[in-house]
Each structure stands twice: as structure tokens, then as C-alpha cells.
Amino acid sequence: MNAITEKLLGLISDFTGSFKGAYNIREDGSCAGRQSSENIVITPKTDKPGIDIHVAPGTAEETVYIPACVTHSDVEDLVYNDFYIGEGADVTIVAGCGVHADGEEAATHNGIHSFMIGKGAKVRYLERHIGIGEGTGKRIINPVTEAHLGEDSYMEMDTTQIEGVDSTDRRTSATLAARAHLVIREKLMTHGSQAAATDFVVNLSGEDCSADVVSRSVAKGTSRQVFRSQLSGNTRCSGHSECDAIIMDRASVSAIPELTANHLDAALIHEAAIGKIAGEQLIKLMTLGLSEQEAERKIIEGFLK
Amino acid sequence: MNAITEKLLGLISDFTGSFKGAYNIREDGSCAGRQSSENIVITPKTDKPGIDIHVAPGTAEETVYIPACVTHSDVEDLVYNDFYIGEGADVTIVAGCGVHADGEEAATHNGIHSFMIGKGAKVRYLERHIGIGEGTGKRIINPVTEAHLGEDSYMEMDTTQIEGVDSTDRRTSATLAARAHLVIREKLMTHGSQAAATDFVVNLSGEDCSADVVSRSVAKGTSRQVFRSQLSGNTRCSGHSECDAIIMDRASVSAIPELTANHLDAALIHEAAIGKIAGEQLIKLMTLGLSEQEAERKIIEGFLK
């Protein structure tokens, strides 16, 4: 793999020269390294770009890394990654994505991920996105995630995009079977003239399933953010959606969380708040000796932690 | 006026044989009574159906009644009512609407209301909607309200639709100048196979203006409700939107409150909750001697009060 991939891997997946266990490193649309483990088997697709990841039933606390890097401008990467999580498996998936633009053309990654999560399985899905490089071309990351949560399964999706991505269109959909539980935590920061759109669609279709979707974002500069979520309660279930945003400078933020209860026993809640950093918070930190910029940084760090 | 109008007036505007002060009674598209007062002048439009209501500057605590009734099937009423509220006036507008279907055809009222609210004026706008009659035709009420709130003005819009309206499409939009304050309270109950759509669009465009939009609804039977609100904060302002719904039987409810902050000093919040009546509340009232039906009725009454 090239030096930029190595740098990006450090930023998106705590890479320190090697991965333990199963991994697949994607570099500019090709494979820069792949390893299966006893329980986690990675095979390339034959009909389209991407891989299938099979996690054996009963796998206990293993981690698989599937970072994807675009290392220069004028690359538009498209990949399909399909996860088949066996019954009762417990697995962490680290799926960072880094794009590096060095010229006038865009560097783009489109990652389409699907999850078939078996009965009683437990999945932690970590997605860290970053854009770097001195080029004027846009750094674009468009992730699509489609999850099918089997009975009694659990999925936690933790996504972070803090810096450097000029444009992102994030679409996540999930369908939950009986007693499945979905937790989504999104952290997003945009600056300059960046644009970010987020769209969550959650179908609460199995009895006693539940979902908890929380997005926290900071919009600086003249950046624009649109957050959408749709929770549909189709049976006895519970759903919670929350969107909190800090607005700075001349940025704009929209929050459009949609709840639909199609069943008497669906209990759905959402909350959203958009505002600037509270003056009192700033003053408090400044009386402790921080400059205004340092105080702002501290508050944002705490908000996105 | 006919007997059905008289009955409807009692239901929608506490009519007891006469109105005090200014009023205009609309019956099946015609005028069934009109009176101006010294400060409130009502004149029929010449270019389209409807009236202009001019409230003189400085008018103190007067009330004007403008009920509209559709008394039989196969009427599709359309009316434009424009309000010009003078500077510093303080006025209450009672604008109920009742539709009575006695045959197979629909009885429909489309009321389009616009408000030009002068500097420092105070308006309370009460809108009570009801459908009655033994006919199989639909009872339809589609109100459109467009309000322009001048500097330092105050508008409170209190709308209630509790019973008998088969289909309603309610659209309200407001634009607020500096230091204007808008309060909206909506109460809605649907039953049978009724459908209700509500749409609020509020532009917070003047410095230090504010809006507080609260909708409470109960959906019974197989009825469907869709609540939408859009608050746009375009300057230093604050906005709050809330939608709480009780779902019963096989009804469905969607809540789609949209917040957009286009300015650093816009502070926007929304909340929504959809769920059934809490079991503990029912049990508590039943231990006090109420039947399950009585307990439900009591809880709904309290919720919509």
C-alpha cells in the first residue's frame, strides 16, 4: 500500500503497521491487503466490486477491519460490502474511510454496506470518515448502510465525521425483527462551505424491538447540514430519535425527524435542538483562563465526545 | 338564517340568538347577517367571495365573530377573509366553521384567511371546527391561514377540531417581524376513518421574534393524522414546536416537525411524542370507581384541555 493509505489508516482505524485478525484494506478501488480469520471469512465478490464478510455463528468478541482509502483526485470508488453475521456472534466491525484529494478533480468514495444479522448476534459497527490533502478537488464520501436485524439481535452503529469531507450524503436504513435493538450514534462536524446530509430510516417491525438514534453535530463557516430521520412503529415497540446541533458563524442546520405510529403499542419520541454555544459556558471557561477560541474548542469537544 | 345554521353557531361560537358587536355570518356561501361596530368595519369583497375586516388602530379588547356554516350536502363553499389589524389594536376573532351533511354528497368549506397585523397589535384568533349531520356525504373543512405579524405584535391562534370532520387539510403560515410573538395551540381529535393533515410554516425573520407551536391530538378508530411544522430561524430569534399524540385502536399518526437555523442566533427546539394512554393512568382512575371507557374519556379530556 502507498504512504497516503498508511496515513489515512492511522486516522480512520488506529492502524499502527498491521491489523490483528481479519481485515480487508481497500486502496483506490483495489485490494491492498486481506486476511481472514478462523471465524471471519472475507471473500471478494465476483459480480461487482466489494467483499462478502461471513462471521461464523457463536464468534466471540472478534474485530474485523475493512478500511477504504481514496488516495488521489479523479478517483470515484464504488464498493459493495455485505456482512453475514451468524447466530449469537459478537463482533466489532471497524469501517473507516479516508479520501485524499491532491488535484483539481474530486476524490470520491461510495460505500454500500448491507448487514444480515443473525438471531441473538451482537454487532458494533464503527465508521470514521475523514478527508485530507492539499488539492482543490472535493473530498466526497457517500455511505449507504442497510441493516436487517434478526430476532434478539443488537446493533450499535457509531459514525464520526469530524473533518475534511466536503460533501457527504449518508443514508442508513434498518429493519428490526422481534426484540432486536438498534443504537445509532452520529457525530458530525462541518466547516468551510461543506455540505452534509444524513438520512435514517428505521422500521420497527418486530414485537418489542427498539431503536435509539442520536445525532450530534457542529456546523461552522458557511457549511450546511440536513438531518432526517424516519422512525416507523409497526407493532409493539419503542423508538427515540434526537438531533442536537451547534451552529456557528454563518452555517445553517435543518433537522427533520419524522415519527409514524402505525400501531397502538408503538411508543415514539423525538427531540431536536439547534442553537449556538451558550454564552455562560464560554464565560465560565474563560474565567478559568482559556481564550475564547480555546473555550469554544473545549465545549465542542465535550459536545461531540 | 336556517335552523341548522343556528345549531352550528351554538356549537362553534357560543351563539345564543345574537352576537354582541361586529359579526358576519356566512351560510352556504351567502351572508346571513352582518354588522360592523365603530372600530371594526366589515365590507364584502367585490372581486371574489369573502369579506375585508378592518380593525381600527387602538381598538381595545373587542371581539368580532365570523362563523361560516355549510348546512347541507353538495355545497362546496370557498371564502376569502382578509383582516387588517390597526396598530396597537387588541382584538379577539372567533372564526368557527361547521359543516352539516344530510345527503350522499360532500359538504365542504374552504376558508382562506389572511392577517395583516399592525405594529404592537394583539390578536386572539379562535377557530372551532365541527361536522354534523346524518348524511353519508363527507364533511370537509380545509382552512388556510396566512399571517403577517408586524413589529412588536402578538398573535395567538387557538384551533380546535374535536368531532365529525371527515377530512381536513389545515395549512397555516406566518412571517414574523421584529419582536413579534406567535403562539399556536392546536387540538385535534379524529375518529372512524377520518383523515387530518396539519401544516405549519413559520418564518422567524425579525430580530428577537419568537414562536411557540403546540399540537395535541388524539387518533381513534382507523383514522390517520399527519402533523408537519417548519420553523425557520433567519435571524436572532427563538422557536419551539411540539407535537403530542395519543394513538388508539388502529389509528396512525405521523409527526414531521422541521427546524432550520439559518442564523447563528436562532435557537430552535422541537419535541414530539406518540403513544397510547399509559396503563397506570387508566388503572389509577379505575380504582377510583370509573369504568375503563370513563377513565379513557377523562384522560383524553385532560390531554386536550
Automatic annotation (TrEMBL), chains A, B:
UniProt record similarity statement: Belongs to the iron-sulfur cluster assembly SufBD family.
A Pfam family per the record: SUFBD_core
GO BP terms, alphabetized: iron-sulfur cluster assembly
Segments forming domain SUF system FeS cluster assembly SufBD core: 85-303
Protein name: SUF system FeS cluster assembly SufBD core domain-containing protein
Phylogenetic classification of the source organism: Bacteria, Bacillati, Bacillota, Clostridia, Eubacteriales
